[in-house]
Design brief:
- With 392 residues, this protein is an alpha+beta fold.
- Helices cover 65% and strands 8% of the residues.
- The protein contains twelve helices and four strands, in the order ααβαββααααβααααα.
- The chain has a four-stranded antiparallel beta sheet with strand order 2-3-1-4.
Length: 392
Amino acid sequence: MAKAKYFYALSAILLLAGGFSIWHKGGLYYGIDFKGGTNVDVRFAKAPDVDQLRKSLSTQGLGGAEIQAISDNAISGQSSNEVLIFVEQKNADDQDLDASKARVISALNATYGITDSGKPDFNLVPLGSLVTTLTQKDPLNLGATAGDRYAQLAKKILDYRDKNANGLVGSLSDLSQVDGVTAAVISTLKDSYSVGPFTIRNTEIVGPKVGAELRSQAMWVTLLALGGMLLYIAFRFEWVFGAAAVLAVFHDVLITLGFFSLLHYEISLTVIAALLTLVGYSMNDTIVIFDRIRENRRLLRKEEFAELVNKSINQTLSRTILTSGLTFLTVLVLFLMGGQVLRAFSFALVVGIVVGTYSSFGIAAPLIVFWHRWRDKSEAAGTGSQPARKPA
């Protein structure tokens, strides 16, 4: 318990730093799930010039679009030649959102698209269009059975493009690796298509009303989870144990959100899932310590309460560190090697597990001790202030 002040000082520094960052930046950085707008995932053959891309978007009236480069590996930080283009629209209907998506694609075509051949871009061609092209030109001379055969072949070709080539084929000759693709098929594809320097990997459109509702629901889900845990621990132990546990978990969530603001990670639905996972994980560590405290109160009745809590922490510390350490290593590997999709999710767990582990014995347990000391002093003061009763 003597070191509790250091944990509280560390927490105060982290909370102040995170709070200042959130205030300075005008709030947390919400993803498309909560803001509403259009998100376009674009992969280029080589790393794009972000300034040039921004100018191109400005010509389409999208000067306020956010451009985020994506790296496949947090260790090397090397770019995957992929960017996310987000256009926020707070007061827009579905038609406006579709129009903004079209403007993003138009800006990309104007800057990076194929302008000399007049042929459509193979990297952007949909399945139906490819089937139609192969069926009409019939490079395999299939005749009446061409429709079904070319539908299967077109699916294999696009599977290669989207999975093996990550959505971006550098040369149509590379398609010779696909089963069933002959020289005649490649010749037909070269006559019909050109290969562009980028591809649209994914587009997301979320209405602003839906985003606001999701943000509200995420907040209520977190608060209800904390409230349910408070009631359970108050019933299972004492109300002060429940209050201390919820305060410690709330402290964990706030510090994690502070790190998200400091490092400009976006808050998405997957991050909310990570925060709820963190809440449960941190609460589990805290309950283990509280359960040992309750057990020792029966076994060590004459022990001073602060010393009893200290012994309880020492008895459970090795288990806490071992469990948390193994979990931390797992999510750390996920953060470093999991790619951009899992980056924010795993980052929330990396920070949350560290903070949640030390808060269980450095924040929650000392709160119980402080409350008991305050209660004992109050009871002693109340007893001392009562006038002595005269003997009968």
